[in-house]
Amino acid sequence: MRARDRPDCTAITAQLDAWLARSMWRERMEWGYRDLPPRVIAEPLLRIPGHRRPHEICVYCFGGVPQYIKVNTFPHGAETVSGCFDIALRQLALYAKPSPAPFPAEMDPARLFDAARRLSAGLVYLRVDFLVAEGAPGCAN
Predict the structure, then answer these.
(1) Which end of the chain is more exposed for a tag (fewer CB within 10 A), N or C?
(2) Contacting residues for 65 by C-beta, under 8 A, at least 6 apart
(3) What is the pTM of this model?
(4) Residues 31-51: what's their mean pLDDT?
(5) C-alpha dist (Å) from residue 78 to 49, 70, 71, 118
(6) Contact (CB, 8 A) for 52 and 45
(7) Phi-psi region for residue 135, left (φ > 0), alpha (ψ -120 to 50) or beta?
């Protein structure tokens, strides 16, 4: 919602109630949601000029070790652009569209890999998602 718009509290409450009634465990069999009660979390809205939403960097970890990265960008007025890389940042032909998204030059991959390694320690598989806005990563989930 834009700041100049007047909120429709009834519609917002109805949407939140609908989301809270859903179970990601039942709908998508996402094991992490099995015993987690639904909650609403409000966070600051991240924006990037010229894009619909922040860039995503998804680090795929197996056995606690980062193996490959998928970068998604969301330019205004265009389709989502994705690119995949190994941990040496060599491009891979996974999910890539004709004009793949580059790995963000301002990002330090070592920091992302270290965080992903710590978050995925002890798990067979975990995808660690980072949102990138204003040149700084934040962990998404």
Answers:
(1) N
(2) 117, 120
(3) 0.69
(4) 79
(5) 14, 18, 16, 35
(6) no
(7) left
